[in-house]
Amino acid sequence: MKKILTPLISLYSLLLFSQYDIKIIAELDTISDVLNVNQEIEIIQSNSIGEDLIFLLDWNNSFISKETPLAKSFSEEYNKAFHLAKNKERGFTNIKSIRNGNGDKLNFFRLESNQDVVAIKLDSTSSIVKIEYSVKIPSKKFTGYGYTKSKDYYLQYWHLIPSLKIDKWTFYSNKNLNDIPSSKYNITELKIKYPENYKVSTELKQSKNEFIKDGFKYSYWQSNKLHDPKIYIEKEKSFKKLNGLKYIYSNYFKNIEKIAEDQVKLSNVKIVDFLKNELDISLNHKILLSKTDFKENKIYDLNILNEILEVYPNEFIYELQLLKILLSKLLDNLLIINPREDYWIKDGIQTYMLIEYVQKKYPNITLAGNLSKFPGLKSLYASKLKYNEKYFLSVTHMDRINNTQSLDTPKDSLLKFNEKIANKHKSGLIFYDIVSKNKKSDFSEIIKNTLKSKNQNSVSFFKNELKRKFNYNKSYIDSILKLKTIDHLNYFAKKNEEPNKSKSKPFKLKLGKDIEDPDFNHIYITPIISYENIYDGVNIGAQIHNRSIFKREFNYKFKPLYSINSKELSGSAIVYRTKNIRNKDLFMINYGLYGNISSYDQNSLAKIYTPFINFNFRESSNLRENKLNSLNLRFLKISNNGNTDITPEYQIFNLKYVSLKSGVINHKKWFLDYQISKSFSKISFSYEFRKLFKSNRELNIRLFTGYFISNKNSSDDYFDFSLDRPTDYLYDYNYYGRSENNGFFSQQIIMAEGGFKSKLTNPSSNNFISTINISSTLWKNLLLYVDLGVLNTKINNSYRMVYDSGFRFNIIADYFEIYFPIKSSNGLEIERPNYNEKIRFLFTFEPDVLLGLFRRKWY
User: Fold this and answer.
1) How far is it, in rounded angstroms, from Cα 362 to Cα 677?
2) Which residue, among 349, 368, 260, has the nearest Cα to 311 in the 3D structure?
């Protein structure tokens, strides 16, 4: 009976999935970077008998325009290379005809919201679909696949692929996440024609000997259910066999020259043996590992840290990196999943195996690696932690900044840090927790069986196996996937719980930063050298704070400095609390007290005291939106030891609402600001808009309007609105020469209030001001700007119209810009004397601000 049931069950499993045989004839045109294709798809088994549609994935067509989901995903990560690219650098697919096996035309269409998905209307007379089309290959600079400047071709998504069907069709657009939902299909015949000076590398199996005719080479290939098979057509083969391995080739391995050849061979064999022993996987087919594969599977801590210092042994890095890449490629071929929804099972197996490998092969390696050998660094808490504890730390990091996302969040909705690091680690920790509560051998068997379950939904099979072996029902696994935080699995988080942890714990001084030691309350001391203004010059001192590499709920930071130029003690102090609110649009509240002492002129110190509270909002359902709103309340008390007639002592209450939606294609920001003191009250509004059009022309528009509700300072312009270079009596702006009226530092511009670049006469207003700043692209980073304004004063109610214009050179927009005035209300600026003194610059050299350029891509 069992012998009868087994084939029946197998047959039923086969019928759950559509299966296809594919034949392709392709010809590469290296002049126009086009692959001309004739493709035949035969539907062998289908779970959709009677249905009249089949869906094909044409992800090469996702490169066709600046408005596809792929283009938008680039812009979400502040990458405008695709938007600025020439049309010939983008890819597309031109479908010439689609017919059935009898030669009759079949109707087809592209989905309106998914231009890289093709729907074909089938008929009942034939199970064969024949397609003639051409593939315009995109530039390699976008994703690592495409044509290179030297006319080599790294082909991905080079042919039409049947979409995955698990009970229902699964298709979606390419977003550069390497998660194509393809069916498992066979390429039974592939014939490629290309110029004779090229060579082909591919994971496909060569079916016939290649031959040359009339200056062209013909090669023949086939495959058996390879996921996303890639083809590399190069003038010189770049892939070389890995030492000691028969089937694995690579064209890139970072710092491999630092490892002895014998050690490389030993490491290669170790990885292959590990995969055989742990997953029962024999590597008996060709595998190509490209530079792009390494980039997509980068182990960030190993690569970044070893760029600066050799923290970890080179063979350790090499082995983990090789293991991660091989696991990724193998799991893509073996798992049958919706990779955008069910990525957690692949990530879980991959991360769990990396944890297992380190535990078995490198059990004594610490998180600090070789740093723990240096005097003064042995005391680091990181030196006491094992390397595998990094997986807890990445999850803790995202939890502390309130950016966690659950494992059932679609991959295209994840923040980049979660997609590349934190959610991968979270998946592995869940698997690790299952093992800790059950027999490891049983869990290993579940993984092996899941990978061997041909033609079955891998997620369903995995969940069923967990129920069969460990009595975990489906709802239990689903509930874990829905969790945003997994502190119940994270012993590190439990040992570092915030509530009451300061009680009964001794304080401990530490130099620099470290990971939190749960047995101590740490006080960190970090020596610093800074430059904040020309009056103080270089500052030397220290930061004394309680923040480790993780954010905390309660924070303090004292920064005593000695300023070499002014020979004065200066610095700042802040004590504040951060309240994270989970799963709400109001996601964070900060409140505290800030103080600062710094020079605002020669021999003049300003003292600032500010209690504050900030309410921060975002769309909790879409963290990739890059949209933030904040409501800020603060009270400022500012005093000085200089001339109070020029810089008075004052107290101001400030209420400000800011809305920001940032992006490289569309950028919007506006704020409403209200200030009140004993001598005045004022309100202002600002709106900024920046758009990069399809023509690659950029338009910037900034509006500002300010009005004094009351003003008793009619003879004093210190608190007035200004066309350019505002007084900055709230000390919000990073002026290097705050009180300079001439010289280089007087030319620094801050885009605030009027935003004018020319220095006009009578630029201030104690009543009303309204301005508009416009700039637009002339060529690349060179823009033309025009500023228009109207203002009046309490004494003179008549309105005065002003303007200026010139050229703006963006080196880094909003961070480093230079302005060249041409014409203004003063007349022709370039004809006036000392023109070099009229050139203005915007410059930011604050490490935290510049780091924001990096952070915005990841968070």
Assistant:
1) 64
2) 368
Residue 472 has pLDDT above 60, yes or no: yes
**To which residue do tokens 């823009």 refer?**
783
Q: What is the CATH number of domain 335-492?
A: 1.10.390.10
Which percentage of the chain shows pLDDT scores above 90?
Answer: 74
pLDDT digit string, tens, across residues 50-63: 568 999 999 999 99
Does residue 500 come out as left (phi exceeding 0), alpha (psi in the -120 to 50 range) or beta? left
DSSP label of 490: -
Q: 199-202 and 231-234 as β-strands: parallel, antiparallel, unpaired?
A: antiparallel
Name the 3-class secondary structure at 269: helix
Q: Within 13 Å, how many C-alpha atoms sit on residue 785's CB side?
A: 27
> Which of 606, 618, 613, 556 has the alpha carbon at shortest distance from 579?
613
With left for phi above 0 and alpha for psi between -120 and 50, is residue 142 left, alpha or beta? alpha
Rounded Cα–Cα distance for residues 366 and 368 (Å) = 5
Which residue in this structure is represented by tokens 């030319």? 747
Between the CA atoms of 242, 247, 249 and 255, what dihedral angle is there, to the nearest 10 degrees?
-30
Break the chain down into helix, strand, coil percent, rounded to 5.
25, 35, 35
- Per-residue pLDDT at 644: 66
- Predicted model pTM: 0.92
Q: Give the confidence band of 12 by pLDDT, cuts at 50, 70, 90.
A: very low
Q: In CATH, which superfamily holds the domain spanning 18-238?
A: tricorn interacting facor f3 domain (2.60.40.1730)
Beta strands in 437-492 (DSSP E): none
Domain residue ranges of the chain, discontinuous segments joined by +: 18-238, 239-309, 335-492, 662-859
* Six-digit token string for 577: 């609390």
What stretch of H or E contains 164? strand 164-166
CA–CA gap between residue 613 and residue 630 (Å, rounded): 10
Residue 514: pLDDT band by 50, 70, 90 thresholds? confident
DSSP calls for 285-345: S-EEE-HHHHHHT--HHHHHHHHHS--S-HHHHHHHHHHHHHHHHHHHHH--S-TTT-HHH
Q: How confident is the model at residue 812 (pLDDT cuts 50, 70, 90)?
A: confident
- The secondary structure of 354-422 as a DSSP string is HHHHHHHH-TT-BTTGGGGGSTTTTT-GGGTSBGGGHHHHHHHHHHHTT----TTS-GGGS-HHIIIII
pLDDT in the model for residue 46: 57
Q: Give CA–CA dist 771/801, Å, rounded.
A: 10
| 3 state DSSP class of 147 | strand
What is the average pLDDT across 204-218?
A: 95
